[in-house]
Design brief:
By secondary structure, the protein is α+β, with helices and mostly antiparallel strands. The protein contains eleven helices and ten strands. It has three domains: 116 residues, Acyl-CoA dehydrogenase/oxidase, N-terminal domain (Butyryl-Coa Dehydrogenase, subunit A, domain 1), CATH 1.10.540.10; 115 residues, Butyryl-CoA Dehydrogenase, subunit A, domain 2; 133 residues, Butyryl-CoA Dehydrogenase, subunit A, domain 3.
């Protein structure tokens, strides 16, 4: 059965336009380091420059409303854009901007008109990059237990606290963060979200010494940091969604993070291992001729293809306004588990060599993928969290089914 989408003549014409533009505008010399810690500042700046070029064209966030700096394009056009930039091992945006991707959409749903005009054009045109700050030492999977405090003081809120496992390499321009604005308030009714300029006095950022992973398209999301807030004064106008109304904003943020956002693109590590097995020999024959290797390659391909189709489905559902229930956490759960299965299959094929940074694997991408597959089970909601959400969405264990977070 063929699950591939069919393209209209208009899409194919647009595809030619996109291909020509990318060929002329992707800065020369963009590299794809296996480990995000190896993403240099110069490489990061090349990605930011490409982001600004895409933003000027309206292609950085193609489906976002034009009045806020987006492209205002249809899903048919955005699918083509995502597919074509994926051919360069890049994504939209071409750098880590999790806070922009999740915060921007949350502001679009819950922000005032003044806030939309203030923040969204900066995000959608690539002028700023935003980290998301969620996890704390006592609040990871239990996000509602956030302790970072925000207290009203005149026209400002004063924020104190700590966030961990934050962001990426090379800093950010803004921070999108959840805080506790009423320590005596009821759970889920005492939280608030802020857009915080990263250069405010009292903000300190320190890298965490962790087993890093490559992140999104090698864009630097594997590097993590600790962020401290020490009496940071944030203008009250930067409060999104209302004081103590943060959980409703969180439903939008988490809905996208848990898989409903959908990311179009192939798992390029699968193409890499297929190519290697076709062109390298074992006992005088190509690895791909070995029955055991072939069996594992088939399993790897099926896993990757199912994951891609889940993401493509969710991308379409989100941008077409379809009714969403369990699809996001379903795709997230499958992606996490299949990533581990794919890594195990590659390890079975290559043996201990998969765990080395030998140049024959191409800048150690295979070794990095082995680490990333383990790490990826946790961020964005653990596998167990995804199962809980799916159960609630289909009505298991509760009298009333949980609704998906608002996306528009």
């Amino acid at each position: 059965m063929d699950f591939e989408p069919r393209y209209t003549a208009e899409q194919e014409t647009f595809r030619t336009e996109v291909q020509d533009w990318l060929r002329d505008n992707i800065p020369g010399g963009i590299q794809h380091p296996a480990d995000s810690i190896d993403l240099t500042y110069e490489q990061y700046q090349l990605r930011r420059e490409l982001g600004r070029r895409l933003g000027d064209k309206g292609w950085l966030w193609p489906t976002a409303p034009q009045e806020y700096g987006g492209g205002g394009l249809t899903i048919d056009h955005s699918v083509v854009l995502e597919e074509e930039i994926d051919n360069y091992n890049l994504s939209l945006p071409p750098y880590y901007d999790s806070g922009g991707r999740l915060g921007g959409n949350s502001i679009l749903v819950w922000g005032s008109e003044e806030q939309k005009q203030e923040f969204l054009p900066k995000i959608f045109k690539g002028e700023i990059r935003t980290w998301q700050l969620l996890t704390e030492p006592e609040a990871g999977s239990d996000l509602a237990n956030a302790k970072t405090a925000a207290r009203r003081d005149g026209d400002d809120y004063v924020i104190n606290g700590q966030k961990v496992y934050v962001g990426s390499a090379h800093g950010s321009d803004y921070m999108w963060t959840i805080t506790c604005t009423d320590p005596e308030g009821d759970r889920h009714h005492n939280l608030s979200w802020f857009m915080v300029p990263s250069n405010l006095p009292g903000i300190s950022v320190f890298p965490m010494d962790l087993l890093s992973s490559a992140g999104e398209s090698g864009a630097g999301s594997g590097v993590k940091n600790i962020v401290y807030f020490d009496n940071v004064r944030v203008p009250a106008r930067n409060l999104i969604g209302g004081e103590n109304e943060g959980w409703k904003v969180a439903t939008t943020h988490l809905e996208l993070e848990h898989g409903t956002g959908g990311r179009i693109g192939r798992n390029w590590i699968v193409d890499r291992i297929f190519d290697y097995c076709k062109t390298n020999n074992r006992r005088g024959e190509a690895l791909s001729k070995d029955p055991d290797v072939r069996e594992r390659l088939v399993d790897i391909y099926i896993d990757a293809e199912i994951g891609r189709l889940f993401q493509l489905r969710n991308y379409w559902m989100r941008h077409s306004g379809s009714h969403i229930t369990y699809e996001g956490p379903q795709a997230s759960y499958f992606r996490k588990q299949s990533g581990l299965r794919i890594a195990t299959g590659i390890l079975d094929i290559l043996g201990p060599a998969a765990l080395t940074k030998d140049d024959q694997w191409g800048e150690a991408h295979i070794e990095s993928h082995q680490r990333a597959a383990i790490i990826a089970l946790h961020p964005g909601g653990t596998t167990d969290i995804q199962k809980v959400i799916m159960a609630r969405r289909i009505g298991i264990g509760r009298q009333q089914r949980e609704r998906a977070g608002a996306l528009a």
